[in-house]
């Protein structure tokens, strides 16, 4: 009689769906989608709210390929918007190559933005006229010009560079001609320095068709001149803009938007006020920052740097780098403490962090 041999049943495993990629999220539920990268702390201006008036600072910058590698890592974790800053980013050789490289990076969550990473740049505009068209052709989406006065004498008083306002205006016009969208112009207001420019800026925005942003002065300057009474607050700015023409409040474009948006009633210009001192927006913060020497920062006012570039140099694997970034983001500060007892100014000034 034949012996029956039991043959184990062959079970074909059913493939499980791939695990959903995880958003880059902190312990307060905020999702990180925005990255600001300082690609140099060199600058051709010496603005009083940023740098000292002396030369000889120890500049720190990496090779363009190092920034590209760190940006690629963070885009792979869910970053969707990259802003290149400084210092003055137009001073960097290889800038156009970096823009092209970022433009080629695939999004981790492509359904959120079909046309890839949004690339923006903040500049003082001094070199912009000769570079605007090349930046557009390389893939830059948007540009912001830091411009803290509309009259030559006030502009020189702020920047400590003579005869430079005309070059900035030429840069704005060149960016408009190149098709770089609606140009944003940022003005850091400081009482006693340029608060007399508010109404003139309103007229400027209407005439030049730019998006105007006023920014409250923050304690991030090298010379440590910040004090609470130097801050020009939102209510005063709105009242004075209304002297130019009546304004109305606009709804936000998205929850993490930093500026409260206004518009002249006649539709001639959009205005905005970024008020981190009098109206903090930490609860919706979606930003990370990379310093010019490759340190990851979770807040402008952090007391700690996280050496992302150093870990890369030491040969950390991609998976190790990703886990490191996730752990850093989990420790992101809940908010800043400007104006509170015991507030500590950040461990670096703005020029070293990136604007």
TrEMBL record:
InterPro entries given in the database record: Aldolase_TIM, Elp3/MiaA/NifB-like_rSAM, MoaA, MoaA-like, MoaA_twitch, MoCo_biosynth_MoaA/MoaC, rSAM, rSAM_sf
Cofactor(s) annotated in UniProt: [4Fe-4S] cluster
Binding positions ([4Fe-4S] cluster 2): 282, 285, 299
UniProt key word Nucleotide-binding: yes
Family matches, as Gene3D superfamilies: Aldolase class I (3.20.20.70)
Domain Radical SAM core: 27-248
Residues making up the signal peptide according to the UniProt record: none
Positions with a binding annotation for S-adenosyl-L-methionine: 49, 87, 146, 218
Involved pathway(s): Cofactor biosynthesis; molybdopterin biosynthesis
Pfam families: Mob_synth_C, Radical_SAM
PANTHER family with a match to the protein in the record: MOLYBDENUM COFACTOR BIOSYNTHESIS PROTEIN 1, MOLYBDOPTERIN COFACTOR SYNTHESIS PROTEIN A
Function: Catalyzes the cyclization of GTP to (8S)-3',8-cyclo-7,8-dihydroguanosine 5'-triphosphate.
Subunit description: Monomer and homodimer.
Protein name, UniProt field: GTP 3',8-cyclase
